[in-house]
Design goal:
The strands form 4 sheets. Strands 2-1-5-6-7-4-3 form a 7-stranded antiparallel β-sheet. By secondary structure, it is of the alpha+beta class. 34% of the residues lie in helices and 29% in strands.
Length: 464
Amino acid sequence: MSATLESLASCWQGLIPATLYTCSLDGVPNAAYLSHVDYVDSRHVALSFQFFNKSRRNVAENPQALVRVIDPDTSQTWALRLRLVRSETTGPVFERMALRIEAIASYMGLKGIFKLLAADIYEVLSIEPALEEVGLAVAVGEDRDLAAADPRFTMRALQDLSVRIHQATSLEALLDSILAGLDEIFGFHHSMIAVPAEEPNVLVTIASRGYPETGVGAEVRIGEGIIGVVAEARKPIRISGLLRAMLYAYAVAERAKQTGLCPPDRIRLPGLASPESQLGVPLLVRGELVGVLCIESEERYRFHEEDKTSIELLGSYLAIAIQNMQLQERAESAAAEEEELTEASEPSRAPSPPPAVRRREVTYYAGDEIVMVDGEYLIRSLPARILWKLLTAQKREQRSEFTNRELRLDKSLQLPEWKDNLESRLLLLRRRLEQKVPDIRLVPTGRGRFSLDVSCTVRLESRP
């Protein structure tokens, strides 16, 4: 059986650089490395047009080319003889390739500089094994599909995750169940979920798993890193061979610096120190961005093309589950508020604190809406305003019990009138305190109710 583009699926992951050979009309050859060869259909591939000006000129004069790709599973080299058909600057192929490049570029601080100019579509005239670079003894056409040998998204796995999700009784439990399920059922050990912040064009990490630092409260702007690019495009992004791709981007960055196209600073890659694969999935419900799921791995070929449909379906399911839980908690909070109106109960007074063994300096910077504890950054924006209200109310009124209702009625907190996501912000604040200031805790006590548990001496200071 002759080789087909489909049988070379692992060659299109970008794990090993491809080589492009072109020739000018007067017979002068040129060779250039390619970061990625993209599969289009059974007869076509796409090559990225970025900085290969000589190759581009050659193909414009002589639309014939040769690409050599290496199968990362067998090390067999394959020679593809190509003929240029057209260049695309729009459409699904261009957008898919551009998103991948944009995600990598954003890590380097090259957003808008290191970008795809066009997707050059080539007809594949022939596929031949390179006899001088023979790989492992695997018959042509033999089923070597890694996804089939090591399936991830089986029906049983999806059912098991569904059971965990249905058992969750709160947003916090739901997020933990999702990430634990991805870890224990699918084997995705490093993951995080970011949700839109109240500030426009910003997402905030609300849950993570597998990292030394939880990263809860970390902010990502739209268009930054894989999370920001996924949020901007609202499409999944899958990257394999990330370290090699980033080394390529480093080289482009150096070239851009030399030509004055960008500053020397770059955005530091979050998460794993040595990621090889990343997957970003938008969590969408009827076109609304509920959040972004990001999964990382140190394996080079962790997320397969065959997983794409399952991943997109999983993202839609998780988005609905998260949004439904947010709506449920909001409804339960509203019900608790109605009960509170009929009870006319006295606010709970804070018990006399035990002898404190630690003193905390809590400073609120009103202009920047930032809370610092002992001189270190804790949190900003709405969660910071909430924490400052709670601490000042406890000190002034000597009480420890609070309700979601009173927070919603407090105009100084500036909650959005529509869809304030207060419960999500309280969860973010609670987890941030657990991580950085464990002697100041928010403890849920019932529907729409919680207590502020302070086991230290707190000195409050407000600054402009």
